[in-house]
Amino acid sequence: MTAQEIHDSLKAKFEGAVVEAKLDAPQPWIRIDEHRIRDVCRFLCDEPGFEFDYLMCLSGVDYNDGNLGVVYHLSSMPQKHKIVLKVRCTKEDPHVQSVASVWGTANWHEREAYDMFGIVFDEHPDLRRILCGDDYPGHPLRKDFKVPEFYNGMKVPY
Amino acid sequence: MIDSKTLPTNYVTKPEKRATSTGRSLRTDEMIINMGPQHPSTHGVLRLEIVVDGEIVVDVIPHIGYLHRCFEKHAEHMTNYQQVIPYADRMDYLSSMSNDWAYALTVERLLKLEVPQRVEYIRVIMAELQRIASHLIAVGTYAIDMGAFTPFLWCFRDRERILDLFEMTCGARLLYNYIWVGGVSHDLPAGFVEKAKDFCKDFRTTLKEVHDVLTYNEIFVKRTANVGVLPKDVAVNYSCSGPMLRGSGVDWDLRRDDPYGVYGKFEWGVQIGKGTKGTVGDCWDRYMVRMNEMEESTKIVEQAIAWLPEGNVQSAIPKRIRPEAGEMYARTESPRGELGFYVISDGTASPYRVKGRAPAFVNLSVLPEISKGAMIADLVAIVGSVDIVLGEVDR
Questions:
Q1: With a CB-CB cutoff of 8 Å, which residues 226-265 of chain B face chain A?
Q2: What's the pLDDT score for residue B303?
Q3: Of B25, B43, B63, which residue sits at a domain end?
Q4: Phi, psi of B157 (to 5 degrees)
Q5: Does B236 contact A53 at a Cβ distance shorter than 8 Å?
């Protein structure tokens, strides 16, 4: 199935959920409303013909314009096609629906995006920091992150 | 085909209520035990918080991050795309060649850069030798986990010969910085081809020896068969990859199903778990997939050496890497599974964002699913069969 067909069916099925798309990119992507991403993913995962059963990668991104984003790279083993989904949220209100109930692998990837970017995944089963310590201040992969001078009493730029 | 609903009934053991001879029942208290971060069978600094009921594992909570070295943050702060490669080396330090290749491939696709045929062949030779070296560690340390010491020594003896080959090529034994964007750092040195051929010839004997002493050893089979069964549907849902996925009977290998390099030119087969000694997707199957893959890799190396074309290995290395604004996700089959890099370029000389999709990170996330109901000793078998490298889990 081509990216155009996926885009058209999503547009028909979920009115208003498709915000933006770039289908002529080397890896075509579709931007989805951040509060409807779970339903879209559930549909893409289960619907015969789409069968995106394999979430390759889920990455947080800081676009450095006041927006954070999450990028989902999906692939389908039976259909052998791929698509990229994106969502955006603001830094002030970084809430995105969790897709951990669709793909189990999203659990740890979302925890990582939360840890590194501070994106809050609503209804995530276990949203804790994963790579940084529980007491680490801030979210290090944000572009405006400043390394703290002291961490637990230790001078950081040693 | 087995799925989570038809697990063998003896696998999930419910603790029975124990009672005295007068019928008074005893309370069984659950306990929390920490395995790691310093523990010989966690293969690195992994901490498992285990909830146990007696000897039975009720829940496992992996705690990772002890080896976090900010790979992604470092990558954003480089002044050049090539400078990321030594950092990528240090992700999965047991298969650095595969990491280099995955990153280089992503940037090459971003640049729409074609590399010379000789480079492609050299990369295949290096990646497959690396796969053998990495699987040898996986198998050797797994044997130690299961109480067999001899195969470990044999595996390390043969891995040493591969490291010698790498050393004569690029000077380093573990972290190579060998595969660059557009080429490789050195051409193959004189004598490499003969030494690699000799290795391939001798290596089959080692494989047979390990099969004889370990694979069909009754103790080993009893420790691994029917233990840690990962059903096919769970494996796909958790995006497991590599021997972990193929052990569960899923016929999926990126070298064939999402081709890169010149793998299409060689004759080799994708190895999957068949449940020979127990259930499809148990620890023994994952072990066996690794053993069989080493054999296939040997075949690929032999063919690539035989057909190695002539050429300049550095002719396509760009002087200045400045991709157009855009993004690319490329994935490769590293020894542990799908190793992908997601690179965003903003048109400057350094990457805007690099995300490493580490197979060990993803494979480890399925651990709580497959270890519930196992014994503590079996948990060691399960963790060993996942074959994690903490450098890659924590990045």
A1: 234, 236-239, 250, 252, 257-258
A2: 92
A3: B63
A4: -60, -45
A5: yes
Instruction: List, for residues B120-137, the tens digit of each pLDDT value.
Output: 999 999 999 999 999 999
Domain match, B36 and B163 both: no
Of A75, A108, A116, the CB nearest to B361: A108
Number of domain units in chain B: 2
Contacts 24+ apart (CB under 8 A), A33-36: A33/A87, A34/A70, A34/A87, A34/A88, A34/A89, A34/A95, A34/A96, A34/A97, A35/A95, A35/A97, A36/A97
Q: Does A156 touch chain B (CB under 8 A)?
A: no
Q: Do residues B113 and B243 share a domain?
A: yes
* Pairing mode, strands A150-151 and A82-90: unpaired
Q: What is the pLDDT of residues B245-281, one digit of tens each?
A: 999 989 999 998 888 889 888 988 898 888 888 888 8
CATH architecture of A3-131: 2-Layer Sandwich (3.30)
A25 CB within 8 Å of a chain B CB: yes
Residues B154 and B230 in one domain: yes
Does A133 touch chain B if contact means CB atoms closer than 8 Å? yes
Cα dihedral B4/B10/B15/B16 (nearest 10): 130
User: In the prediction, which pLDDT does A14 show?
Assistant: 83
CB-closest option in B72, B252, B328 to A26: B328
| A54, A62, A67, A143: best to mutate for the B interface, most B CBs within 10 A | A54
CA distance, residue A150 to nearest chain B CA (Å): 18
pLDDT at residue B16 greater than cutoff 70: no
Whose tokens are 């007696």? That residue is B54
In terms of domains, do B28 and B167 share one?
A: no
| A23-29 long-range contacts, CB within 8 A, separation 24+ | A25/B326, A25/B327, A26/B109, A26/B326, A26/B328, A27/A82, A27/A84, A27/B327, A27/B328, A27/B329, A28/A3, A28/A83, A28/A84, A29/A71, A29/A83, A29/A84, A29/A85, A29/A86
- Residue B86 CA to residue B185 CA, distance in Å, equals 12
Task: Please provide the DSSP assignment of B361-381 as one string.
Answer: HHHHTTHHHHHTT-BHHHHHH
* Helix, strand, or coil (residue B68): coil
Instruction: Tell me the nearest-neighbour CA distance from B190 into chain A, angstroms.
Output: 40
- Give CA–CA dist B243/B246, Å, rounded: 5
Whether A54 has its CB under 8 Å from any CB of chain B: the answer is yes
Task: Write out the residue range of the structural domain in which residue B318 sits.
Answer: 71-394
The phi and psi torsions of B30 (rounded to 5 degrees) equal -80, 150
- Scanning every residue of chain B, which has its alpha carbon at the shortest distance from the alpha carbon of A22? B326
**CB distance from A100 to chain B under 8 Å?**
no
Query: Are the beta carbons of A57 and B340 separated by less than 8 Å?
Result: yes
